Target: Adiponectin
Amino acid sequence: PDPKTPCANWMGGAPGYPGHNGLPGRDGKDGKDGLKGEKGEQGVQGPKGDHGEMGLPGQQGLTGIPGYPGQKGEKGEGAFVYRSAFSVGLTERAPHPNVPIRFSKIFYNEQNHYDASTGKFFCSIPGTYYFAYHLTVYLTDVKVSLYKKDKAVIFTYDQFQKNNVDQASGSVLLHLSSGDEVWLQVYGEGDNNGVYADNINDSTFMGFLLYPDMDGH
Model:
């Protein structure tokens, strides 16, 4: 039998006092990493930091692809074009001397700067003009002059040859001021008015603006 049982006539003693704490044991081996935990909630944003110093410029990037063409813009205002021109022909034979020849056959006079009732061109746009005339000569001699402001500028003379039709012509560049007038007229006596025109022969007078005086416009 168990020696501590009453049958062995053994008496239990009083419990002993607890012993002193033993020395700490040695560190155990590191355990294996556990599973990754769930993402935590976002923390409160911290205060804004100070501006850092400007860095060095970076390298130039590659050229970009050209963009699409833009929409068509609205039509702009065009520059004003100054126009002044006329071209006329003679319908009367043997015009009177020492007065403006009235060319009443109108080829072109869109601006109405030539007056068929007086035979004079009236300058409305100051500038440089070109004038020319081509006259049929028949029956007698022709002496004509081109006038500007009551002063003859150029003269043309053609001697008539019997049994023949001749031509006389002239041209000139003139600077005109606003209000100046230009015309043709026979000068001398009546035996110099051989300017002629019929259904197969024309005598013409024309002029046009080359360029205006931009200072006045």
Observations:
- Residues 179 and 213 are 14 Å apart (CA to CA).
- DSSP finds no helices and ten strands in the chain.
